[in-house]
Write a structure and sequence with these properties.
This protein is mostly beta strands. The chain has a single domain, classed as Beta Barrel (OB fold (Dihydrolipoamide Acetyltransferase, E2P)), CATH 2.40.50. Helices cover about 5% and strands about 50% of the residues. It has 1 helix and 7 strands. Strands 1-3-4-6-5 form a 5-stranded mixed barrel. The longest helix is centred in the middle third of the chain and has 10 residues. The radius of gyration is 19 Å and the shape is globular.
Length: about 140
């Protein structure tokens, strides 16, 4: 069995680039920064940012273009994909991207537009319900 999954939580680094393909499909691309913090051997606090290239298609792309902006905090889940091309000088270039399957907006409600789905947008999943206490007598089995 193979598995190709990527999950990140970070902030949108740049404005969302939205395009439409000749066949009419919407595609967006943007970057998300994630931070790693640690204390080194000398006791100094260290901070390192990683930048992840994100691509989303169709309805998810339309929603991302509408609601995300530079600085938005977001959870992205998808698969890794590396593509290659030759630049103008004939050099081989590579770019690894996360092809997004789902997205959750993590900014507080006062800082983000209302989506009608509590910030959850994906291609197959519904928003998770709020947790409530379960009574043993309510379980049907």
């Amino acid at each position: 069995m193979d598995l190709n999954r990527a999950s990140i939580i970070g902030r949108v680094v740049n404005d969302i680039e939205s395009r439409t393909t000749p066949t009419g499909q919407t595609v967006v691309s943007f970057s998300v920064a994630t931070n790693f913090k640690w204390t080194d051997a000398a006791g100094q606090k260290q901070d390192k940012a990683e930048f992840h290239n994100i691509v989303a298609w169709r309805k998810l792309a339309e929603t991302i273009a509408q609601y995300l902006k530079k600085g938005s905090r977001v959870y992205i889940e998808g698969r890794l994909q590396t593509r290659s091309w030759d630049d103008q000088n004939g050099n081989k270039k590579y770019r690894t991207e996360i092809i997004a399957d789902s997205m959750i907006m993590l900014d507080s409600k006062g800082q983000m537009p209302t989506t009608g789905q509590e910030g959850v947008v994906n291609n197959a999943k519904a928003p998770e319900p709020e947790e409530e206490e379960i009574n043993i007598e309510d379980i049907p089995f």
